[in-house]
């Protein structure tokens, strides 16, 4: 599943963008502020997200990729024990 970006705008500084996705479970928006636009373009062109943003938390990368909130992701994909 790939997130649909409902909004992309200029971030707080030049070269940054703010991206908004919609959670596929609850349909509430997720806003990821101040992403590096150059890195975002690299990711859109196919570079692995963990290579582009190695310091971004896995849950934030998942939100960017799929749109899921961390809580909704856990409900739809519970960890197996």
What's the topology here?
Blueprint: E1 5-10, E2 16-22, E3 29-36, H1 37-44, H2 49-52, H3 58-66, H4 70-76
Antiparallel strand pairs: 1-2, 2-3
Percent helix: 25-40%
Number of discrete helical segments: 4
What low-confidence regions span 5 or more consecutive residues with pLDDT below 50? none
Oligomeric state of the chains present here:
single chain
Average per-residue pLDDT, rounded, comes to 88
Question: Based on helices, strands and strand pairing, what is the structural class?
Answer: alpha+beta
Q: Could you say which overall geometry the principal axes of the C-alpha atoms support?
A: globular
SSE sequence, one letter per element: EEEHHHH
DSSP strand (E) fraction? Answer: 25-35%
Number of strands: 3
End-to-end Cα distance, whole Å, is 24 Å
The strand order across the widest sheet is 1-2-3
Give a short account of the largest sheet: 3 strands, antiparallel
Radius of gyration using CA atoms only? 13 Å
How many distinct domains? 1
What labels would you give this structure?
81 residues, 3-stranded antiparallel beta sheet, 4 helices, 26% strand
Describe the structure.
The protein is α+β, with helices and mostly antiparallel strands and 81 residues long. The protein has one domain. Helix content is 35%, strand content 26%. The protein has four helices and three strands. The chain has helices spanning 37-44, 49-52, 58-66, 70-76; strands at 5-10, 16-22, 29-36. A three-stranded antiparallel β-sheet has the order 1-2-3. The longest helix is centred in the C-terminal third of the chain and has 9 residues, at 58-66. The protein is globular, with a radius of gyration of 13 Å.
């Amino acid at each position: 599943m790939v997130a649909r970006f409902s909004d992309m705008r200029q971030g707080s500084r030049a070269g940054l963008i703010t991206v908004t996705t919609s959670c596929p479970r609850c349909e509430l928006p997720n806003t990821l502020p101040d992403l590096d636009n150059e890195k975002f373009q690299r990711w859109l062109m196919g570079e692995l997200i963990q290579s582009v943003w190695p310091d971004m938390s896995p849950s934030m990368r998942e939100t960017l990729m799929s749109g899921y909130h961390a809580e909704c992701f856990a409900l739809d994909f519970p960890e197996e024990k």
